[in-house]
From TrEMBL:
Organism: Diploscapter pachys
One annotated GO molecular function: ATP-dependent protein folding chaperone
One family name in Pfam for this protein: HSP70
Keyword match Nucleotide-binding: yes
UniProt keyword annotations, A-Z: ATP-binding, Nucleotide-binding
PANTHER family: HEAT SHOCK PROTEIN 70KDA
Homology family: Belongs to the heat shock protein 70 family.
Gene3D superfamilies tied to this protein: 3.30.420.40, Actin, Chain A, domain 4, Substrate Binding Domain Of DNAk, Chain A, domain 1
GO biological process: response to stress
Name of the featured protein: Uncharacterized protein
Length: 661
């Protein structure tokens, strides 16, 4: 029976998920003597999909072999299950990634070419507050290129500028190579996890990083959702699960309702893209630098080697306190001649120094509970993931809020996200593989939600929402609009994310520019389509109606600098300023109405047979120069607009023309 099943498709790439399984099948079927003859044909085109947790400080890669097999965490060449998110560009042109790059960071005097924190830079603008704050701690240089932050490295006396997504691609290439070595197969597809509150730029650039390695991204999966998948496979009892994901550089909270074993509904999501273990490290480094100066009267040396040494001992002390120790040493020898930095860090002092950051995570939890219309008592289980969730005081705070009995110990904090990604990768791979049988139903059905509203900037900076926050994606919506000027040659607008009526108070994502084919009077119909795909990536296209003329969004980095605020703050700000936003919307509508009257009056003058050509020219010149051009002034106030309307009415009366209201 085994022979006939095997013979029906003896060399099927899809029949065996990895080479090791293929070999086992050959041997178990009694074909070990033929293995050498068949192997080249069997393995030549073998391809697999993997799950990747692309972390700020550490990465994990995992693989699921079959529907019934457990997820395997793949070790790197050093035998470790986590790989540092570090890339070293050596002066001779060589590139080191992961563990080897981390050793360069620890042991080299010149660490300016050792790059990390690409996850904190990817999709960011140079003047974003988080980038400017982090630059004080980084040992490498960041330069501004058209609003985008780039790493600066020196190799062979040449200066190179490297984009964050290129550094992420180097890390992904190493993870891919580790997986291919372990599985003895070609990795062609992957699922990569991202923070739930990653914006559209960050998602696009992460996907681009994977594509630079030659991998196809089956899905960008939100990190807390990945953890929920890993938890759901092992636990079928809990119905409403809160995922608390505190990693090295980002923090996410999601509440997921399990409809059944394979269907997950995200009820609420929030987070902070700049809150994690590195921020706790920065607090400790800053504290001990100040203590050293206070105690010895000298500033702590501001050179890469000494800063690196201090950071290393602070990280080590933090990790000791996150396990069994209640006190740890912070020691750096020979900081200055015959002067050491020698202190103790107690758990109480650590909690005091980082307490504000720890408690900030609770306010984000409250935001997600509010989104989901739930109370803490209605949460069945809390899943702690991310290395920083090991911190004892964090677990104490969560236990106080939800009860210690609700904290799940069912998944590995540092492996859960990669495990969920691997499960999703296997599921999507199974759906997409060529097969003569009917297409398989997906094992998991995920319903994610849009964290912030998406829309376009209209004239006078009014924000028109295309997709409201809380919408389940994938989703699609089309906005109909029209040209606002006679003989308009192009349509141009910006795409924003946020909750305020005035686009200046939202986040600019990109620009859409369409050169029009049919030029004529104002009112030409345009259709703008917003589509958020399964990866959470926004696609925007604009179409000139009745033609095939269309264009798509171009991502930009020249928006106003972003401050690091969580989604709750953005929503609360919009709620608290509702009256201001309503007044702004009403004022813009007043300007729209006045502008429409101006164009209506122009057409009426052009069609008025009682007026001579000279009179028409004179009146049209007044309308254009004195009113239409001035109406475009964005500094205009409600009073000025109303005064202009009255003046316009009076001017028309001078020529014996009526004013249509």
């Amino acid at each position: 029976m085994q022979w006939f099943l095997f013979q029906s498709d003896p060399f099927s790439v899809n029949y065996f998920p990895c080479k090791r399984h293929c070999i086992d099948r050959f041997v178990s079927c009694g074909f070990s003597s033929r293995l050498n003859r068949f192997a080249p044909f069997l393995f030549a085109n073998l391809m697999v999909a993997i799950g990747i947790d692309l972390g700020t400080t550490q990465c994990v890669v995992a693989f699921k072999q079959s529907a019934d097999s457990p997820v395997e965490i793949i070790s790197n060449s050093y035998g470790r299950f986590t790989t540092p998110s570090v890339v070293a560009y050596e002066k001779n042109g060589a590139v080191q990634v992961g563990e080897s790059a981390y050793h360069v960071l620890k042991g080299s005097k010149d660490v300016g070419n050792v790059l990390y924190d690409s996850k904190r830079l990817i999709g960011r603008q140079f003047y974003d507050q988080s980038v400017q704050d982090d630059m004080k701690f980084w040992q490498f240089n960041i330069v501004n290129k058209d609003g985008k932050p780039l790493y600066e490295v020196k190799q062979d006396e040449n200066t190179r500028h490297i984009a964050p997504e290129q550094v992420s691609a180097e890390i992904l290439s190493q993870l891919k190579a580790d997986a291919e070595k372990r599985l003895e197969a070609k990795v062609t597809d992957c699922v990569i996890t991202v923070p739930a509150n990653f914006n559209r730029k960050q998602r696009i650039e992460t996907k681009r990083a994977a594509e630079l390695t030659g991998m196809n991204v089956l899905r960008l999966l939100n990190e807390p959702t990945a953890a929920a998948i890993a938890h759901g496979v092992k636990n079928s009892d809990s119905k409403v699960v809160l995922i608390y994901d505190l990693g090295g550089g980002t923090f996410d909270v999601s509440i997921v309702r399990k409809i059944d074993k394979s269907k997950l509904m995200v009820l609420g999501v929030d987070g902070h893209a700049h809150l994690g273990g590195q921020d706790f490290d920065n607090v400790l480094v800053d504290y001990y630098m100040k203590r050293f100066e206070e105690n010895h009267g000298y500033e702590y040396p501001n050179n890469p080697k000494m800063l690196r040494n201090l950071r290393a001992v602070c990280i080590d002390a933090k990790e000791q306190l996150s396990h069994n120790r209640t006190i740890a040493d912070v020691f750096v020898g020979n900081v200055l001649r015959d002067i050491d930095l020698n202190y103790e860090l107690t758990r109480d002092l650590f909690n005091e120094l980082c307490g504000d950051l720890f408690h900030a995570t609770l306010s984000i939890i409250d935001s997600v509970l509010e989104q989901a219309h739930l109370t803490a008592e209605e949460i069945d289980q809390v899943l702690l993931v991310g290395g920083s969730s090991r911190i004892v005081y964090i677990q104490h705070l969560i236990g106080q809020k939800f009860g210690r009995d609700k904290i799940s110990q069912g998944v590995h904090p540092e492996h859960a996200i990669a495990q969920g990604a691997a499960i999703m990768a296997f599921d999507l791979w199974e759906q997409n593989k060529p097969s003569t049988s009917t297409s398989k139903k997906p094992q998991f059905e995920i319903h994610e939600i849009i964290p912030l509203s998406l829309g376009i900037g209209l004239r006078f900076n009014l924000f028109e929402i295309a997709i409201p926050r809380g919408t389940i994606y994938p989703c699609k919506n089309t906005i109909l609009s029209a040209t606002s000027h006679d003989y308009q040659t192009s349509s141009e607008f910006f795409v924003y994310e946020g909750e305020r009526a005035n686009v200046k108070k939202n986040f600019k994502i990109g620009k859409v520019h369409l050169k029009l084919q049919h030029i004529g009077p104002a009112g030409k119909e345009l259709a703008t389509t917003f589509l958020v795909d399964a990866n959470g990536i926004l696609h925007v296209t604009e179409l000139e109606k009745d033609t095939d003329n269309c264009t798509s969004i171009a991502i930009q980095y020249d928006g106003s600098a972003h401050s690091e605020v969580d989604i709750r703050c953005i929503v609360n700000e919009a709620t608290n300023n509702k009256q201001e936003d309503d007044e702004f919307t009403e004022f813009v509508q007043l300007r729209y109405d006045f502008e429409n009257k101006l164009y209506k009056a122009k057409r009426a003058v052009e069609e008025n047979l009682a007026l001579s050509e000279d009179q028409k020219k004179e009146i049209l010149s007044i309308i254009d120069d004195d009113f239409i051009n001035k109406s475009c002034d964005l500094t205009s106030t409600r009073e000025l607009t109303e005064a202009s309307e009255q003046e316009f009415e009076a001017k028309l009366k001078e020529y014996g023309l009526g004013f249509s209201r």
